[in-house]
Amino acid sequence: MLLFGCHQESPPEAPPPAGCGPGMAEARGPGGAPLCVDQARVTVAAYEECIGRGLCSARPAGSGCLRDDLTTQQLPVNCVDVGQADAFCKAQRKRLPSREELQALPLQPNEGLRWGSDQEWTSTRRQPTQALAVSFQPQMRSFFAESLLPPETQRADLGFRCIR
Length: 164
Hints:
By secondary structure, this protein is α+β, with helices and mostly antiparallel strands.
């Protein structure tokens, strides 16, 4: 199922969070609430480190799933289901963003956030058996596509980022 929505501008009333930290950008969520957002999707190296610490589970070795080697370490991790993405974010003392939080973020690259065309997991559930993934189309600056997927879905074109 593919749906389209519009990017809405957030009001500038709330102060930005103090000190988001390296690799994160200050942004405004729904209603202008301050957020710290990963500038880019979680990398293979970061996810593999989480596995090494015993806080994340292994990914499948399927077709298109990036392995941890010198050529892929800084690429966005893929082939993780929504539970694995959630566990990674929690291990970093962060969380998965909701659909509404992602929709409120600026799509312009000069805002410190980097978007790709692959889908990203959100914390939004439509039903217990359906999790929501969002695909940004930065060239359009205001539209994104949504897909309802079984939470156990692990695909080569599906990654995630975290917020706090």
